Input
Amino acid sequence: MPVAIITGASKGLGRALAAALAARGWDLVLDARGAEALKEAAESVAGHGTRVAALAGDVTDAGHRAALVAAARRLGGVDLLVSNASALGAEPLVRLAELPLEGLRRALEVNVVAALGLVRAALPLLRESPAGTVVAVSSDAAAEAYATWGGYGASKAALDQLAAVLGVEEPGLRVWSVDPGDMATELYAAAVPGDDGPRPAPDTVVPAFLRLLDERPASGRYAAPALLERR
Output
């Protein structure tokens, strides 16, 4: 069975993607900071009959990243690495004039540095896979200028560039930066707590990721709404 590592997998998009992959027979290594929420998610996903290793921890910890890769190696390797764990930098979001620099550092550490660190740890196994794939979960805030989204957007823009360069440097892999579009998630609620407008559930976005895995287009940046429209 193919093996995927998914960070930020206890809820939202990460959990929805984990469930969809498990339904397709993938074995999974799941990460999140909250141990209880991760355990519940892992038990739910394991109901599909696949092997699931759940490791609670912080992706900014090199030891934790190494443990995720080691767990995947025990399952057979790494065919897919999804960097989905994210930090906002401030909750709720604030304008750049008020953004705590420590918050910006945290967003960069989680969204960029840790993502690259995990790729580097998993790279030998990804190269061995006949379909080695890296997915960096991006945001439209990486490409558009939205007030209060500057720190988060800057971190996602940096992640996009890392993914683009990795795709050039590792032609044997598929490296996709994916903007999932607007979603109803706890992350968005924490970012803009007063905005309770209707938004798509994360599981409605997952088919866009599955389409990429099925069709395996060239490495690059993709927007989930556009992928769903072309189905």
